[in-house]
Design goal:
The structure is a homodimer. By secondary structure, chain A is an alpha+beta fold. Chain A folds into 2 domains: 7-95, Winged helix-like DNA-binding domain superfamily/Winged helix DNA-binding domain (Arc Repressor Mutant, subunit A), CATH 1.10.10.10; 101-255, Chorismate lyase (3-Layer(aba) Sandwich), CATH 3.40.1410.10. Chain A is 26% helix and 32% strand. Chain A has helices spanning 8-11, 32-46, 58-65, 69-81, 101-104, 134-139, 180-183, 187-193, 212-217; strands at residues 54-55, 85-88, 92-95, 110-111, 121-131, 147-157, 160-170, 198-209, 225-235, 240-248, 254-259. In chain A, the strands form 3 sheets. In chain A, strands 5-6-7-10-9-8 form a 6-stranded antiparallel sheet. A 3-stranded antiparallel sheet of chain A has the order 1-3-2. A two-stranded antiparallel sheet of chain A has the order 4-11. The longest helix of chain A has 15 residues, at 32-46. Chain A is globular, with a radius of gyration of 21 Å. The first copy, chain A, starts with 7 loop residues before the first helix and ends with a strand. The A-B interface holds A 106, 111, 199-207, 209, 225, 227, 230, 250, 253-260 and B 106, 111, 199-207, 209, 225, 227, 230, 250, 253-260. Strand 8 of chain A pairs antiparallel with strand 11 of chain B, so a sheet runs across the interface. The first copy, chain A, binds a DNA duplex through residues 1-5, 24, 26, 31-33, 57-59, 67-71, 73-74, 76, 87-93.
DNA sequence: TAGTGGTCTAGACCACAGA
DNA sequence: CTGTGGTCTAGACCACTAA
């Protein structure tokens, strides 16, 4: 009775609407529910569905996409686990807002002694767009001569600086990133602004002794032990999006990691 | 046609077999698939299903539990995400072995420069069973005067010590934990040995300066910066199972955290 | 009371692995 | 070829929310 849905979803141009296939063939290597999830992701990326918006009910979407409610639900469940959507029984399904504190908090792991997130004020030291260096080519999987944004900024809490960050982001992914306002954002809201969906990230943690210039910025002594945070954030499609090297003067703060 | 399955699963004694209910009522606050998942967990805990074993097919289990295949599948999916089971298309569903390197690796985050896990040799410094102190009461959610196992051990790589661990575990959860062999295990295989299923864990990371006695054990200088790892591991039912305070001489190693 | 997401059922076919 | 898990369908009822 049923063959699988074809791949028109994945292959069609981003501007064309969903084409309900009449003959169901599995031309794509992806199962139907993943194809549908990809359309959901695209609608968010393109801005058709905006943060905080209520999207149509699962039965409406199932009708629109010409799939069963069960398949639609599975696609929505995947989108939820990808942090694209939030569902609330009796209310509806909502597009997540990654500029909200709860979603941005995901990328800041420094905590106060009482377990609260450190809420710092940021100061931009420098922003430049330039060609990649060797390390960036490797870490961000870029080609030689490609362009990157490099941002250096300092975080302070109650007027006292505690963290220096060096960011590198492929310029291709962040067109028009120039303003200090943009450069002050966390990666989550910044990515949302340019229609990028974020996936996994990993972090290598070690201890550095403060170099003279860094000690100067952090108003501490040369040689003070700093927590070194070497982090790469990837997109939902597993493309490196940001490389961050941070050096953090902990004092009574700590880095919090949670595993499920 | 169908009302919900009742809670006989959750409420029946561990020794009784699954009772297929004839009248389906939702006496439990848990949906059916979670009740079924709990029976799966119990079968593993009790040793009825042993590590690496192939369990019956989903259709067989659905018949046994008197639930639909869809519900059985959902229960199995939850068990997979809880790391109880692994499923392989065409082969079957297997009970995870938490004494295997892949599962034990989940709890060791120290990596070599080439990203490989540090494989150290462990030495037991001391094992005692005693009454809880104030910190343990809080961290392990215990009552005053309850008993804990305290283990101090040192990890070395190529003969050079790099990490000192102080462990505290509720004695109630680890009856008969006395031998140095048991005390040398990672938490995952140790928990499996006593039929405990592990869930989330969290870790607070900061920097300590080596105290004289610790510097002595780690064969370094007093005041050397050490990575301090303050970790609590919880059971699947969210009961604290182990509190670990580790101090780690990193040198060219680092702590690796991955987020999905 | 209407509409949403959450749970459950019954049964089909697809994809993969091993005998 | 047989049996396993993986995907998909169609439709029912439950639980929650807000008008």
């Amino acid at each position: 009775m049923h063959n699988y849905q074809d791949a028109q979803l994945l292959d069609q141009s981003p501007d064309e609407p969903w084409q309900a296939p009449s003959a169901r063939r599995r031309l794509s290597s992806h199962p139907l529910y993943l194809q549908v999830r990809n359309v959901i992701a695209q609608r968010i990326t393109s801005g058709e569905w905006k943060p905080r918006m209520t999207i149509p009910s699962e039965s409406e979407l199932a009708r629109e996409f010409n799939v069963s409610v069960g398949t639609m639900r599975k696609a929505l469940d995947v989108a939820v686990s990808d942090r694209l959507l939030t569902r609330r029984q009796g209310r509806g399904t909502f597009v997540n807002d990654h500029s909200s504190t709860e979603h941005a908090a995901r990328y800041s792991n420094i905590r106060n002694p009482e377990d609260s997130h450190v809420r710092g004020e940021v100061t931009i030291v420098s922003i430049i767009e330039t060609s990649v260096n060797e390390t960036e080519v490797i870490r961000l999987r870029m080609r030689p001569k490609e362009r990157v944004h490099r941002i250096r900024r300092v975080w302070a809490s109650q007027g006292k600086p505690y963290m220096l960050e060096d960011l590198a982001m492929p310029a291709r992914l962040f067109p028009g990133l120039v303003s200090p306002e943009d450069a002050s954002l966390h990666i989550a809201p910044l990515a949302q602004k340019v229609g990028l969906l974020l996936g996994r990230h990993d972090e290598r943690i070690s201890i550095d002794k403060a170099a003279p210039d860094i000690a100067d910025v952090l108003k501490t002594d040369t040689g003070t032990p700093l927590l070194r945070l070497d982090r790469i954030v990837y997109s939902l499609q597993d493309v490196p999006v940001e490389w961050r090297l941070a050096q953090c003067l902990l004092e009574d703060r700590y880095y919090f990691a949670q595993y499920r």
